[in-house]
Amino acid sequence: MILLAHRGCTDGAAQENSRAAFRRCFDAGFGAETDLRDAAGEIVVAHDMPQGGEPAFEEVLQIMDGRNLPLALNIKADGLGEILGKLLARYGHTNYFTFDMSVPEMLRQIRGGLQVFTGLSDIAAAPVMLAESAGIWLDCFHSDWYEGAVIDDLLAGGKKLCIVSAELHGRSAHAQWERIKCCANLKSPNLMLCTNMPEKGELYFNGRN
Question: Which CATH class for the 2-206 domain?
């Protein structure tokens, strides 16, 4: 199981998507999920509308310092694909995927050669452009709606899979993590978990901290 820290490793919401959160995350060996928007002609890290002072995405790649840890890039605005691809290439970063963009932006990014994940959830039961996508972002907005066998079936289809941990939606992750741990393919290099608790996840799923 590969662990991704949701908006970096933090001690609270105020630190999310900060430079310090990414340093702590990458120094601990975790990948990260983060949010990308455009502001004043560059791509910045921001979940909501940028107010100024947000880290540029290029800074995140500089903090990564060539370690090529996994990045899940939540696309919050259209038109980012071309410059995003150039930035990733400039820093030699190949271990990433984009997700959660509009359908037209998704199509543009796929055509542009970016590694795009489609979505599957209790709200969106039919993944868009599944065949063309590199993987699946498996979400659980209202409930832990799937069993471990669903995860195994999705992995058997040859796609990478990133699971959204239940605490990101305000629920306890215990029952969900129990189901995930029963997967036959728990050690697959194509299986990821995005969580606010990467250290706990590393111990729970991989037996180390």
Answer: alpha beta
